[in-house]
Amino acid sequence: MILDLFPKGPFLPRNFFQSIMNHAPEQQSMGMKIMQQMEDSTVMPNRTTREILRAVFGQHSHPMKKYMRMMYWFPKFWNLNPFPLPEELPTEYIKLCQIGLKRIAEYEAKLSVSYLKGSYPDSENPEFIATMQSQEQQDMLAHQSVNKALYVEGAFTLWLRNVQMSYFILRGDPFTMEEPEEDTDVGGTASSPDFTYLNNYDVSLQEYGARSKQRGTNQSLLDAPDPIQEGPIFAMCMTTNQTEETLRHWIQTLQEENPHLANIPIYFNLFNLDKGKHHVSELIGDSKLIESS
Question: CA 247 to CA 288: how far, in whole Å?
Fold first, then answer.
């Protein structure tokens, strides 16, 4: 261990003033850098590390405080991520796509890989499209109305440690909240609300309003509209060739498992592509127009 190379004794504070005045600052700074390197490399210190730091710098030194902070937080964050990455990420891009899509999609989602024309699995640098879609997404897509368009959007960014990935989604329109129908009586008139249940409360409405005012309730926040909900996502993909032509081919491959998709109009909203251009194009929902030649 590198920390064991420090001499034991010369850097220990001899009195109270040396302890509060950062005794041996250069050596403590070097010890802090070593401890920080251990933290960045996710190396868990042990009791031997504690004994070495105590013998070299003392109980109340900065490296010793760093050690105690690491021993407190490391066990808490060790299993915090429900989707842990492997210790060493694979170098094959197709395996990285599998890991990235699994982190986004559901556990039941199925991964399928289709290779582009002229590319094969045994090629040196194969060009492919990795698609992730679950059975629930296929059922939702089968009941999608042909009068509502779908959208291919991307590229969105996903980070796997220091590896940057890009993915695309096939989504629908945001869900709309329907207004509840008024409850009507038999005669056809709207029934008046019943406030008799308020008699069961000990606190009257006037007292509740006064207490709310005393607490400083912000009425504007209460009256604010709900945020717009996101629409359904029917499929996701990652590809080695981020072009509109490749994404059109992705839609064709999706039609094999989702034949109803051929009758739905699709819009392409593409950004952050390889060339960095943003453009929007349309694909008419006609099965004859998007059949593979």
Answer: 17
Q: Residue 261 and residue 250: Cα distance in Å, rounded?
A: 12
**Cα atoms found within 13 Å of the Cα of residue 94, Cβ hemisphere only:** 16
Reported pTM: 0.59
The two structure tokens encoding residue 131: 């698609």
The token pair that represents 101 in the structure block: 């899509």
Alpha helices in the chain (DSSP H): 16-20, 25-40, 47-56, 62-77, 93-104, 135-142, 205-214, 219-222, 244-257
Q: What is the pLDDT of residues 142-181, one digit of tens each?
A: 988 888 889 999 889 998 888 888 999 999 887 644 444 5
Q: Are 128 and 52 in contact (CB under 8 A)?
A: no
Q: How many beta carbons lie within 10 A of that of residue 97, not counting itself?
A: 25
Tokens at 92, concatenated? 């094959």
